[in-house]
TrEMBL record:
The keyword Transmembrane applies. This is Transmembrane 9 superfamily member. It is a multi-pass membrane protein. InterPro entries: EMP70 (IPR004240).
């Protein structure tokens, strides 16, 4: 049984329902005898706040049951009050039979008092023939009018047009400007007067070409770790979306969660490879620190948030609490698969792609950065950089939030793939523009700025989640609020690291491209 909080509310449940609603508990089939196996542990599924309990109901195929009794329950005032609260707040239950979910509300209120009465908890089963094939049996759970509404198509089209406009704008402005700069710097036979005039007229990004732009950033180990983790998350999201499109993961109970965790473990090599190569290219020396930080940063952030939420769930006696056995399984996956692969990737990245290849020699003495107007400061550039990427995923966030918090089955992963690719392209373009403006302000500290200008997309997503909480849900109370914002914070952190890594890598390629043909001292 997986009993959950009501319509438009977070996944909360009380221990009372685990006892009272045994007759509504799940019976799911094994491949061998189509009967629930008491020793079958649903491990990663419970990470979504769904712990199943055996309903002890013996359901046989095509055998109707008019009235079967599970047990008897004697009501007292406390139980009547909790029943009443559950009914008035539209709490509903969920149970599974042969991996198909069924939902129902707790019951109805009657004016007469039931204190002291003994209730027979019963169930009935009726088999009805259908023409629906086994492969299409899950279609009844899919809300086609909601997900395939014309506004969903329009949002994707609108985002696609934004990509075309933005990439065209970036290409036109930057390449037109840079072409003139290349022509001037490529001249071999300038006379002294022309050269002196060119030097006196230099401004913007051309003044920081002497190697300052390739100076290692501060907190290099941390930046390498978040960029490596973000590259891994980008590949992870792409893999999960493709697997969902090919294999219809939404049909299997907990398949998305299981796929996500396993794919994360096996893609940890990417985070180490990118982080190790970046750390070595910038002359980093503390290899142990870099490896440990890359392997542990994101998992430990998620663990910290999950630990707090799990403590709250245990305090409230909720089935959303993750069992100790499941935590052990997740830790073993991380310790014996993810962690070693991240370390291996760091070593490989250090040796294969870690040779410095800067177009310009880094100067010993850093160039002073002039004071510029407020809108060209790194903080403003970073904050404004997330607006357009958020605009490209704004509508899709509504569908994702509604699927997760309102229990709709999200199945339009083709839409998600398009939106994800659009997000990547928009993030790269916007970050390149922001980096170009920063260099024109003669500020060569572009590394962290490019990361945060892309990562700020997550800030707007979290602000949107606050709006969604107050306007689109009926949640209340500390338990529901903490779970909502805890899960959203975890999602936003992952999205921010992903976008930040994409923004940094795009800006890094852009800078190496524009300074490649510049003559350096």
């Amino acid at each position: 049984m997986s009993s959950s909080s009501a319509f438009s509310t977070v996944r909360s449940s009380f221990s009372l329902f685990a006892f009272v609603f045994l007759f509504l508990s799940p019976v799911f089939a094994s491949e061998s005898d189509h009967k629930y196996q008491p020793d079958d542990a649903v491990t990663l599924w419970v990470l979504g706040g769904n712990e199943l309990i055996d309903g002890q109901i013996d359901i046989k195929f095509q055998k109707n049951v008019d009235k079967g009794t599970i047990c008897q329950l004697e009501l007292d005032e406390a139980k009547v009050k909790e029943f009443k609260d559950a009914i008035e707040n539209s709490y509903w239950f969920e149970f599974f039979m042969d991996d198909l979910p069924l939902w129902g509300f707790v019951g109805e209120l009657h004016p007469d008092k039931n204190t002291g009465k003994i209730l027979d908890l019963t169930y009935s089963i009726k088999w009805i023939p259908t023409n629906i094939t086994f492969a299409r049996r899950f279609d009844v759970y899919l809300d086609y009018p909601f997900f395939e509404h014309q506004i969903h198509w329009f949002s994707v089209f609108n985002s696609f047009m934004m990509v075309i406009f933005l990439t065209g704008l970036v290409s036109m402005i930057l390449m037109r400007t840079l072409r003139n700069d290349y022509a001037k710097y490529a001249r071999e036979d300038d006379d002294l007067e022309t050269l002196e005039r060119d030097v006196s007229e230099e401004s913007g990004w051309k003044l920081v070409h002497g190697g300052d732009v390739f100076r290692p950033p501060y907190s290099l180990a941390l930046l390498s770790a978040v960029v490596g983790t973000g590259a891994q998350l980008a590949l992870l999201v792409l893999l999960v979306i493709l697997l969902a499109i090919v294999g219809t993961l939404y049909v299997g109970r907990g398949a998305i969660v299981t796929t996500f965790i396993l794919c994360y473990a096996f893609t940890s090599f990417i985070s180490g490879y990118v982080s190790g190569g970046m750390y070595s290219c910038n002359g980093g020396k503390s290899w142990i620190k870099s490896m440990i930080l890359t392997a542990c940063l994101f998992p430990f952030m998620c663990f910290g948030i999950g630990f707090i939420l799990n403590t709250i769930a245990i305090f409230y006696g909720s089935l959303a609490a993750i069992p100790f056995g499941t935590m052990v399984v997740v830790f073993v996956i991380w310790a014996f698969i993810s962690f070693p692969l991240a370390l291996l990737g760091t070593v490989v990245g250090r040796n294969w792609s870690g040779a410095p290849n800067n177009p310009c020699r880094v100067k010993t003495i850093p160039r002073p950065i002039p004071k510029k107007k407020w809108y060209l400061t790194p903080s403003v550039v970073s904050l404004m950089g997330g607006l357009l990427p958020f605009g490209s995923i704004f509508i899709e966030m509504y569908f994702i939030f509604t699927s997760f918090w309102n229990y709709k089955v999200y199945y339009v992963y083709g839409f998600m793939l398009l939106v994800f690719l659009i997000l990547i392209i928009v993030t790269v373009c916007v970050t390149i523009v922001g980096t170009y403006f920063l260099l024109n302000a003669e500020n060569y500290h572009w590394q962290w700025t490019s990361f945060f200008s892309a990562a700020s997309t997550a800030v707007y997503v979290y602000l949107y989640s606050i709006y969604y909480y107050h306007v689109k849900t009926k949640m209340s109370g500390f338990f529901q609020t903490s779970f909502y914002f805890g899960y959203t914070l975890m999602f936003s952190l992952g999205l921010g690291i992903l976008c930040g890594a994409v923004g940094y890598l795009g800006s890094n390629l852009f800078i190496r491209r524009i300074y490649r043909n510049i003559k350096c001292d």
